[in-house]
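Hi all, posting the design record for the shared folder.

TITLE: backbone redesign
STEP: 1 of 1
STRUCTURE INPUT:
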């Protein structure tokens, strides 16, 4: 029997009430839900890992992730097209906002052309994942993340459980699949991030209507059953995610894991729907990966909580942590922001310079962390100039100094100097550190002192953490990476004193190799 869902819209034309009959919920959406519910209902019969916390929390961080240190993220979705606001898909439904005005001028009224119009406008016509990946590898990236689905509930891959995906709409290509091929062709560990659990509340504005003007009271397109599989069926702000929503979330993510075999999963918060579906998905992820590694998982789950590898969004630790962690951040806004952006001032003042990126990387690595950096893309898939410049600068710096980053472990202290960042969510370095700031890493019997700046040609610097009574028995040589000059040094009670050469070997930060 055909399931029909009808919604009546009331409008007034010349003072006369008119009732319009909205579209039905599409049969394909109903079939997709039934298929997802069947996947959700299937008993979990896998091994060795089971969907219980005790089983999954014992899984150690793989050594490859600890060695990798630096990853690059493509935080790229249809929201990159307008370039107005990081929260465009939800803010465009707020009458009077800059996003609303932009949408009205470029796409039409939200009652007729909601965010789905932006999806169709996303063409990705200059997207070249192979060329981009080569730039990322040259810049030092050892792992890579792509977004499978952001808050907007649009899948960037060939999804079997929603028609709102990049193969059927917009670019008409498998974004996740293309990135996976490029990463593996360049020996880069491949990861997928998901924010899809946020879709339950993200489009709440689409259930509203203008409160004034010619279209006052005309419901936005989120009220139309034809689009509920994108926006969700209208619900109250305190309503918990429905069983149907969770079933679709689980089926889509399980398919994504099976189809693309990622080594890393990132969730924008705690493990979503942990009791209902999250632990079951995590166990499946580890089981799939372990089957490829003789029963031992070599996979990573990043969450903002006490599960897997802890992630700090735009934040850092303030000390050496016993367990590995990750700082995820962006060169600028999470999406490309153009000159009309409501966040233009933020974009201009917070687009990170190469110095900030390198200094943040050194700070993070010295505290047992990894840095994941997003380089925002235009809607067409290309990078904007600031991104290109920083990548080119990193490609020059990494060959000289990469040995102090990759494959290293923390020393007994992370560093010294005036710049100390407090551990907090959304509390990251916004300005370069100083030449008096030093961060330490180790590899075997080698200690690296990363100086976050250039003190000056021929200057004598003192590393106070290395007085004569500490490491004098093992310190035999001091080298400046990238320099052919012989480095003279001495130790006394004040510390290790090093005379720098008359010319710096590179910009942004230099490294002393102590053996």
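Okay, here is what came back for every position:
SEQUENCE:
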């Amino acid at each position: 029997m055909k399931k029909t869902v009808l919604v009546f819209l009331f409008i007034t034309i010349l003072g006369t009430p008119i009732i319009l009959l909205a579209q039905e919920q599409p049969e394909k959406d109903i079939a997709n839900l039934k298929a997802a519910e069947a996947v959700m209902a299937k008993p979990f019969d896998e091994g060795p890992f089971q969907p219980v916390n005790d089983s999954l929390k014992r899984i150690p961080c793989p050594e490859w992730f600890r060695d990798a240190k630096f990853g690059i993220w493509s935080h790229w979705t249809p929201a990159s097209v307008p370039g107005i606001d990081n929260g465009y898909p939800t803010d465009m439904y707020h009458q009077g906002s800059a996003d609303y005005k932009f949408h009205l001028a470029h796409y039409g009224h939200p009652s007729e052309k909601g965010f789905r119009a932006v999806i169709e406008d996303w063409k990705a016509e200059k997207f070249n994942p192979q060329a981009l990946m080569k730039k990322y590898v040259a810049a030092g990236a050892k792992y890579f993340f792509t977004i499978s689905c952001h808050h907007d509930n649009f899948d960037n891959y060939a999804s079997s459980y929603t028609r709102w995906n990049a193969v059927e709409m917009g670019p008409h290509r498998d974004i996740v699949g293309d990135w996976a091929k490029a990463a593996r062709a360049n020996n880069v560990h491949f990861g997928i991030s998901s924010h899809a659990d946020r879709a339950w509340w993200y489009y709440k504005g689409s259930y509203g209507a203008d409160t004034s003007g010619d279209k006052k009271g005309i419901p936005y397109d989120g009220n139309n059953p034809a689009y509920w599989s994108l926006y969700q069926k209208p619900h109250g702000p305190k309503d918990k995610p429905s069983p149907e929503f969770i079933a679709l979330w689980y089926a889509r993510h399980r398919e994504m894991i099976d189809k693309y075999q990622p080594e890393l999963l990132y969730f924008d918060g705690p493990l979503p729907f942990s009791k209902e579906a999250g632990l079951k998905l995590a166990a499946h992820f580890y089981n799939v990966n372990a089957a490829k590694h003789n029963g031992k998982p070599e996979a990573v789950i990043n969450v903002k909580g006490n599960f897997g590898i802890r992630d700090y969004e735009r934040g850092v630790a303030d000390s050496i942590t016993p367990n590995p962690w990750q700082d995820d951040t962006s060169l600028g806004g999470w999406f490309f922001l153009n000159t009309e952006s409501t966040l233009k001032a933020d974009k201009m003042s917070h687009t990170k310079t190469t110095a900030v990126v390198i200094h943040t990387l050194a700070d993070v690595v010295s505290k047992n962390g990894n840095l994941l950096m997003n380089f925002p893309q235009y809607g067409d898939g290309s990078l904007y100039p600031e991104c290109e410049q920083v990548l080119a600068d990193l490609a020059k710096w990494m060959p000289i100094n990469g040995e102090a980053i990759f494959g290293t472990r923390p020393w007994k202290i992370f560093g010294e100097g005036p710049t100390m960042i407090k551990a907090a969510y959304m509390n990251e370095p916004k300005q370069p550190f100083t030449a008096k700031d030093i961060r330490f890493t180790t590899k075997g019997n080698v200690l690296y002192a990363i100086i976050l700046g250039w003190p000056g040609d021929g200057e004598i610097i003192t590393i106070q953490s290395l007085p004569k009574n500490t490491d004098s028995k093992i310190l035999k040589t001091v080298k400046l990476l990238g320099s052919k000059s012989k480095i003279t040094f001495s130790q006394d009670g004040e510390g290790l004193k090093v005379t720098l050469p008359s010319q710096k070997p590179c910009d942004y930060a230099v490294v002393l190799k102590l053996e």
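COMMENT: The chain has 16 helices and 18 strands.
Let me know if anyone wants the other runs.
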